[in-house]
Design a protein that fits this description.
Mean pLDDT: 92
Radius of gyration: 25 Å
Helix content: 25-40%
Oligomer: single chain
Largest sheet: 9 strands, antiparallel
Strand content: 25-35%
Low-confidence stretches: none
Amino acid sequence: MNDLLNKFDGWLGDAGPAAMVIREHLMPVEGHGGVLFPATFAASQDGTFKGGYNIDTFADGKNLCLIDTVGSQANRLEPLFAKEGYAGLVPQVVIKAGDKSVNLLEAGHRAGDAIVRCSELRQELRSAFKAVQKGDAEPMAKIAPTSLVFGVWDSRDTQVKVPRLIASTIRALDVRPLTRSAQYIPATEYVDRGLLEEPLEKKARDAYAERGFVHVPASGSHGGVIATGGIRRDALLHLAALRLLFAREDRAKTLALRRYILGLALTAFTHLPSGYLRQGCNLVLDPDKPREFVEVHADGRRAPAKMTHADALAYAGASAESFGVGENRSVEFDKELARLDVSGDTADGAKKTPRTSIKKAK
């Protein structure tokens, strides 16, 4: 076991690689030239972005289309640690909110999410954020270790930020946007057959259309894109950021902490995520273009990385056992804490603190 634990210690020291990089070339399941549907975004408040697909066009006429964001990719990867074969690597923290139970691994803002902030874990997590600020990430690793892997910002309380170790984005190059049109046809002519009165006012006509009682044309809406320049997933594992994690000034505990978080990060990083992103966007690896996996050093050197997902999982298991995984928890969402949170008050008298970020221990 010691040999396995020591295997990647070279990556944890200052002389280790700055990052690991994976580049995967993707294609729609239909094949090259297939239509895929990118994510759509709301218009910006200042009106500079009209909403829809995020396509950046450059001076030379080429463009780049965002298919899946860093945040979306992280939210797709993190629930991996709730699945069989992975769940034992991290504490399973479940918050019961009414008739629904939410695993912290599914909460969009992780340890900074409202659902866990308004539970009996509130003060414990607040203390963990404060500890990170002072150079001790061990308490956070015992409660919400994936917050140290995928990043977290306690924007509603302590303002502490922890950087993402893993950042993954999918983009399409040189896309051709398409439009589509459709016509909704009701099952019968409700007005003509005397089943409904004829709507005389716009409000009534709109209500009929919304509820499916009249014909509704839909013209020129988003119809996906064709990526003539290919589709690419770029994933980074920032080892330089991992080396900012400390367990106070205790060298042995710091090494155990870093090994543990590295094991979790490598497990997520080497896992082939589902290619089904949304309706109309199901992507698979392009067999004609090899996957790239390299170590990138501070001096710019790039060396092939040799690690399988099975290797990463084995290392994660050994490092988790050595570090000591935090306990599983089941807690209740507290409506009174939520009420105080909304009002800007706190049950413990805590005050908002200035925005800050992770601090290196001296």
